Amino acid sequence: EVQLVESGGGLVQPGGSLRLSCAASGFTISTYWMHWVRQVPGEGPVWVSRINSDGSSTKYADSVKGRFTISRDNAKNTLYLQMNSLRAEDTAVYYCARGQGGYSDSWYDYWGQGSRVTVSS
Amino acid sequence: DIVMTQSPDSLAVSLGERATISCKSSQSVLYSSNNKDYLAWYQQKPGQPPKLLIYWASTRESGVPDRFSGSGSGTDFTLTISSLQAEDVAVYYCHQYYNNPAFGQGTRLEIK
């Protein structure tokens, strides 16, 4: 069974940092593009970042570029999102998602349950 | 960037009746080289992540009931639930993956 389990969220002050992890099971992440998507409750999801199968290609939404870093450890079957210089507007539930179809941009066939990040003083 | 706009924002339909949700993109998401529309639909229930229903605008994901169908091309798309069931109460989102992925604002579907 495919599973994605996020961890590392929590309450952080503006300007602080957090590192989210997404542990995958039931499949090998090394053969998939992987994504982070965030969602403010009551709003639509917003794509944050993606990384290719070997980690050599990454892309970010303009809103997080220069502050967030996506990475992966295929040996641990785990995806990461390092979030620095956090702002109040980064407050959201963060999901990791598996991209399907072998494309850099594609639909997401599996999502984690989400990790809540709250940026507040 | 491509902006996705769904309508209506909320919808109440009687059990067994048809529900129709519209999604419009600010520019075409049809890729001419493969004639595919880069559009997906998801269902989200409270406290859960989005669940994939449809991709390539009209291809149903494995395990999704056949009462769910997607149609449209270019900039105008529709998700149809042919006979509403109680378990279909949720928020539905369209998602373009043509360029710089973007989601619609969501349509809340309720029972009338």
Overview of this protein structure:
The complex is a heterodimer of chains A (121) and B (112). Chain A has 121 residues and is an all-beta fold. Chain A has no helices and eleven strands. In chain A, the strands form two sheets. In chain A, strands 2, 4, 5, 6, 9, 10 and 11 form a seven-stranded mixed beta sheet that branches. Chain A has a four-stranded antiparallel beta sheet with strand order 1-3-8-7, with no helix packed on it. Chain A is globular. In chain B, 38% of the residues are buried. Chain B is mainly beta and 112 residues long. Helix content of chain B is 0%, strand content 52%. Chain B is built from no helices and 13 strands. In chain B, the strands form three sheets. In chain B, strands 2, 6, 7, 8, 11, 12 and 13 form a seven-stranded mixed beta sheet that branches. The mean pLDDT of chain B is 97. The A-B interface holds A 35, 43-47, 61, 95, 97, 100-101, 103, 105-109, 111-114 and B 38, 40, 48-52, 55, 61, 93, 95, 97-106.
Short structural summary:
The complex is a heterodimer of chains A (121) and B (112). Chain A has 121 residues and is an all-beta fold. At the A-B interface, β10 of A face β7 and β12 of B.
